[in-house]
Specification:
Elements (H helix, E strand, L loop, with lengths): L1 H33 L2 H32 L30 H11 L4
Helix pairs in contact: 1-2
């Protein structure tokens, strides 16, 4: 019974958002044809109805996915977000041994006299 009620609410909100878009479209046509201020107000009402319906549906899907653990933290274009990372700096490869570095390492390894 709960699922049926949830589906009824979602279907009602979906139809309300669609009706808001239809109201917006017809109000634009009437405003362009007759230029009445009332039609501009109906445009705003239709746009608000569509936006609120879409926001409700989006919030429902977000909450459902969050509850089921299907959300991952991703950045732009699905790339994983990396947190607490130091800024990139140019790193020098110290593992290569050049002739002068070999000589410096050898002299530092000698015991002091």
């Amino acid at each position: 019974m709960q699922r049926l009620l949830a589906w009824a609410v979602l279907t009602g909100v979906f139809l309300l958002a669609g009706e808001g878009l239809n109201l917006f479209r017809t109000a634009i046509e009437r405003w362009l044809a007759y230029g009445r201020v009332v039609d501009a107000l109906w445009m705003i009402v239709g746009l608000l109805l569509a936006a609120l319906g879409t926001a409700f549906l989006g919030g429902f899907v977000y909450y459902r996915d969050k509850k089921r653990g299907k959300l991952t933290r991703e950045g732009w274009r699905g790339r994983p977000v990396q947190r607490n990372r130091a800024p990139r700096s140019r790193q020098v490869d110290d593992t290569r041994q050049t002739p002068w570095r070999q000589a410096a390492d050898a002299s530092s390894r000698e015991a002091p006299r």
